[in-house]
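for the writeup, i need someone to sanity check this before i put it in the appendix. the sequnce is what the collaborator sent (i think, or maybe the updated version? ugh). structure was predicted straight from it, no edits. if anything looks off just tell me and ill rerun, i have time this weekend
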Amino acid sequence: MRPVATRVSQLTGEGALAVFSRAKELERDGRSIIHLELGEPDFHPAAAVVDALRDAVASGRDRYVSTRGIPALRAAIASYLRRTRRLEVGSDEVLLAPGCKMALSLAMMALIEPGDEVLYPDPGFPIYPSFTRGLGASAIPFGLEEKNKFQPDLQEIAAKITPRTSLLIFNSPNNPTGTVFSRETLQQLADLARKHDLWVLADEIYARIVFNGEFLSIRSLPGMAERTVIIDGFSKSFAMTGWRLGYAVAPKHVVDAMDLLVLNTFTCVAEFTQVAGIEALRDSSNAVEAMVVEYRKRRDLFVARLNRIPGFRCQIPDGSFYAWVNVEDTGLAAEEVAKVLLEEGGVAGIAGAAFGAGGKNYLRFSLVSARHSLEEALDRIARLSVRWRAAVAR
């Protein structure tokens, strides 16, 4: 029998899903598990969003629609970005997709040629290098290091740009570190993109979950609108993970190319989900702000107590809902610490190597559980720390 296409061998999975599967096995065996592995909010969409979906289905809005997305939602996204990010976007620069991963994949297919080199953050979302390799390009990491407060080293990035480099990918606020790239960092990245004629793929899925100051999109900087593709969606800010509704914002000719890919793959996003997306963007109940306030409280609680546990060290994240925890002082490999926490303590986190080589000494915890659950997780971690406490004291 003939084998499957070789490109599939270049793809990798997500560590979070593997940990989740093991955690569910333990739950089926009667174990108590606190799930801090998946980046899935414990909130649900606002009632008005659910009502909008129900009404759309009841009124028959369940037919084929425009491959780019319904005009009303594309216009609503342009207005939303103007209101929340001060971006001037035309509705013809917006394309809808069934989830951010699909929007990301479409953009990468439209921009990357075989043999290209693509710069991406390490640690970072594992799909960036995986899909790059699947497209026949080379994935070139740049580090996000604790000594730099997880801001990228611009000299490192500049040194890695070659004539084959076509695309720079980054994610701010960052998954897994929670870092929000500074204005200076974004300006320098923009300088490099303009100088070397690079596309920029800005993953802004956590843009609304920022705890200090105002989010800045690289697209707003001079000369960047024509070379930037923004990836965003409804899963994180609006707690609509299972609704599978994402979008890309790009120059019109890039949207045209992505639209042709849509025509050749999934045809369109369900209309009733898109109608609900319009209501989500209105945010009439200020649900997003309420979630961010709660995430800030969870962050402050979790990081402060975690930093008092021997062997653990965590910088305060400025955005997203993750804690990126250095565990090298435990004297154990991060994978071993994660295993002990899950198998013996019932706390599911992810060993940082799942996000790249730069994460080998780290664990990622998602702060998506209620505060009482986070407190219980911290109690369990503290009890297990006896395993390495003596070594840390020496």
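The longest helix spans residues 287-306. The first strand starts at residue 34 and ends at 35.
thx in advance!!
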